[in-house]
Design brief:
- The model has no long low-confidence stretch (mean pLDDT 97).
- The protein is 31% helix and 22% strand.
- The chain contains 7 helices and 11 strands.
- The chain has 2 domains: 134 residues, Glutaredoxin (3-Layer(aba) Sandwich); 45 residues, no CATH class.
- α2 packs across α4.
- By secondary structure, it is of the alpha+beta class.
- Bound molecules: benzoic acid.
- Benzoic acid (BEZ) binds next to α2.
Length: 212
């Protein structure tokens, strides 16, 4: 059955540009982003890996380890990385899995045969420190991902893991958030949201971001 939110992220061991990776050990106590690329030496993927490498300090700040995957062997990745560094004004600073046998791509359902028989689509998995899958997004090969959006979702996941809130449409870090509808006891609301809250509708209550 296809992976779903809340499932344990399947563990694996696979070759990478930084040696063999045992996925759960690699993640340790960090959050993780696992994202697939259709193939090496492709233009959109080149820009994506460059962008991700430039944003690594932002992922580090959030305690997130990145791991890319492409269904080509290590020596191909190594040659490709030279192009990425040369053209994207960066130094690749996280591993790319060499999934030539498609072990990981199959495990995570990254090959969608109606889109392409052999290459992966652009999958993104965000994984929490307890190894649960918290987000899955699938993009077609023709659309490069927005890594600011991936960081935004991580901010939301990390905030909502610690507070009884959810984040509204187009929220970014620092904006008002929504109080979880299940919270109704006025005393509990006062304790949990000392900065106060606005009742727009009984089910739509806005409060300043609690960790700011
Ligand atoms: C690319 O990364 O540029 C790409 C890969 C596969 C199909 C289309 C574009």
């Amino acid at each position: 059955m296809a992976l779903q939110l809340g499932d344990k992220a399947p563990d694996f061991t696979q070759e990478s540009t930084q040696g063999e990776i045992a996925f759960h050990d690699y993640l340790g106590d960090s959050w993780g982003v696992l994202f697939s690329h259709p193939a090496d030496f492709t233009p959109v993927c080149t820009t994506e890996l460059g962008m991700a490498a430039r944003l690594k300090p932002e992922f580090d700040k959030r305690n997130v380890k990145m791991l890319a995957i492409s269904v080509d062997p290590v020596d191909s990745h190594t040659e490709w990385i030279k192009d990425i560094n040369e053209t994207q004004n960066t130094e690749m600073n996280f591993p790319i899995l060499a999934d030539a046998d498609k072990k990981v791509s199959d495990l995570y359902g990254m090959i969608h045969p109606q889109a392409n028989d052999t290459q992966t689509v652009r999958s993104v998995f965000i994984i929490s420190p307890d190894k649960a899958i918290k987000l899955m997004i699938t993009y077609p090969a023709s659309t490069g991902r927005n890594f600011d959006e991936i960081l935004r979702v991580i901010d939301s996941l990390q905030l909502t893991a610690g507070y009884s809130v959810a984040t509204p449409a187009n929220w970014t870090d620092g904006d008002e958030v929504v109080i979880a509808p299940a919270l109704q006891d006025p005393q509990v609301l006062e304790e949990k949201f000392p900065k106060g809250y606005k009742v727009v509708k009984p089910y739509l209550r806005m409060t300043p971001q609690p960790d700011k």
